Automatic annotation (TrEMBL):
<dbReference type="InterPro" id="IPR027417">
    <property type="entry name" value="P-loop_NTPase"/>
</dbReference>
<dbReference type="GO" id="GO:0003924">
    <property type="term" value="F:GTPase activity"/>
</dbReference>
<feature type="binding site">
    <location>
        <position position="28"/>
    </location>
    <ligand>
        <name>Mg(2+)</name>
    </ligand>
</feature>
<keyword id="KW-0479">Metal-binding</keyword>
<keyword id="KW-0460">Magnesium</keyword>
<dbReference type="GO" id="GO:0046872">
    <property type="term" value="F:metal ion binding"/>
</dbReference>
<feature type="binding site">
    <location>
        <position position="48"/>
    </location>
    <ligand>
        <name>GTP</name>
    </ligand>
</feature>
<dbReference type="Pfam" id="PF00025">
    <property type="entry name" value="Arf"/>
</dbReference>
<protein>
    <recommendedName>
        <fullName>ADP-ribosylation factor-like protein 2</fullName>
    </recommendedName>
</protein>
<keyword id="KW-0547">Nucleotide-binding</keyword>
<dbReference type="InterPro" id="IPR006689">
    <property type="entry name" value="Small_GTPase_ARF/SAR"/>
</dbReference>
<keyword id="KW-0342">GTP-binding</keyword>
<dbReference type="InterPro" id="IPR044612">
    <property type="entry name" value="ARL2/3"/>
</dbReference>
<dbReference type="GO" id="GO:0005525">
    <property type="term" value="F:GTP binding"/>
</dbReference>
<feature type="binding site">
    <location>
        <begin position="21"/>
        <end position="28"/>
    </location>
    <ligand>
        <name>GTP</name>
    </ligand>
</feature>
Length: 100
């Protein structure tokens, strides 16, 4: 994943990554791993609890990349995860386009 993000990053520009997914999907773990690498990123880890999901769209404006995190070992929540992602994609949101 990091190699893809490095290639996508513009030279001398910060890459703003928004990590979303259900609670306990591993978002914070991924952010901590990325921060230990030598990458100029500003990751945003937004909570995945049901009460916070309606706020996700508020973080899109200054986001370059969205990473949707799925806990593939939690088979009981795969349907919930799919439904939340589908609902998010159906919303009328626009990601900020990086200045080139």
């Amino acid at each position: 994943m990091l190699s893809i993000l490095r290639k996508a990053r513009l030279k001398d520009k910060e890459l703003r990554i928004l990590m979303l997914g259900l609670d306990n999907a591993g978002k914070t773990t991924i952010v901590k791993q990325v921060m230990n690498e030598d990458v100029t990123t500003i990751p945003g880890d937004v909570g995945g609890q049901k009460t916070l999901r309606s706020y996700w769209k508020n973080y899109f404006e200054k986001t370059d990349t969205l990473v949707w995190v799925v806990d593939a070992t939690d088979r009981l929540r795969v349907d919930d995860c799919r439904d939340e992602l589908a609902g998010l994609l159906l919303e009328d949101v626009r990601f900020a386009s990086p200045t080139r």
